[in-house]
Amino acid sequence: MTGTERKVLNKYYPPDFDPRKLPKVSVPRNRQYVIRVMAPFNMRCNTCGEYIYKGKKFNARRETVEDETYLGLPIFRFYFRCPQCLAEITFKTDLKNCDYAQEHGSTRLFEAERLIREKEANERAAEEEERTNPMTMLEKRTKMSRFEMEALDRLEELKEINKRQANVNYDLMLSETRKSEFEELRQQHEEETALLRAMGFLSGDLPSDRLVNLPVIKRLPDTDSDDNLKPQEILTADVTTQKRPKLSRQREVLQGAVAVRKKSTGTTGRRAESLGVSEPAERYATTSSAGLGMLGNYGSSSSEEST
């Protein structure tokens, strides 16, 4: 058949054509077809170690697998050769998982995505079965309750074994505790004795360590009046208790020369006569209020005199 002959729509059949006279063509039962395919997954050749990645194109031979079907559907096998060492590699269809299965000549590489999809599919199938099948739910609850009971039984058994094997001697425990306390007290006493010897409070000539008469030091309370008195108490305190400050000689003479003038009850033009050097005035007043009063009287008379 030429290239132009295959494109025609009709063919010529002579009038004496008889199809029964044509010889029969013997077709083998499991015939192989050469087709163009791509690698369905990443693989590694077992002969030379060549890596063949998913999507690489090959001229492969396809055949139908004998005596192997899935729900009445045929399974196909593919043959191709390694591009490096020309070793034959085969794989076939996996209709159950909607995938391809590696069969011979190579090793399928790890695919995390495929494992995740398979795990999710298995989990969804198990959940669906548990939700729709009451017997599965009952069986699961029974297994869980049985497992809990077995765990409790094992725990109780371990407790009983520990109780039987435990031999506690309380007297020995108390004696060990007393020994440790006595050792701590003895060590503390030795440390204090060594410290006192280093400070010179212990006599080295005595055969036994005993304390010499140590000086007794008593701490006296703080007697500062400024710290003890409150601010209100300082303001309200009696000033008479304070000592009178010593006056200078000149101030005493001048104090005796000053005369106290009384207010006149008559007209404003009348003034009190000066008595000259009068008798020395009384000593400094005992209270600060009296001194302030005398100064007030003196000031008022001087203002009247100026008028």
Automatic annotation (TrEMBL):
Residues 260-307 are annotated as: Disordered. It comes from the Eukaryota. Residues 298-307 have a biased composition (Polar residues). One of its GO terms (cellular component) is U2-type catalytic step 1 spliceosome. Keywords: Metal-binding, mRNA processing, mRNA splicing, Nucleus, Spliceosome, Zinc. It holds the Pfam family Saf4_Yju2. It is found in: Nucleus. Zn(2+) binds at C45, C48, C82, C85. One of its GO terms (biological process) is generation of catalytic spliceosome for first transesterification step. Its main location: nucleus. One of its GO terms (molecular function) is metal ion binding. InterPro entries: Saf4/Yju2, Yju2. PANTHER family: SPLICING FACTOR YJU2. Component of the spliceosome. Present in the activated B complex, the catalytically activated B* complex which catalyzes the branching, the catalytic step 1 C complex catalyzing the exon ligation, and the postcatalytic P complex containing the ligated exons (mRNA) and the excised lariat intron. Part of the spliceosome which catalyzes two sequential transesterification reactions, first the excision of the non-coding intron from pre-mRNA and then the ligation of the coding exons to form the mature mRNA. Plays a role in stabilizing the structure of the spliceosome catalytic core and docking of the branch helix into the active site, producing 5'-exon and lariat intron-3'-intermediates. Belongs to the CWC16 family. YJU2 subfamily. HAMAP family: YJU2. This is Splicing factor YJU2.
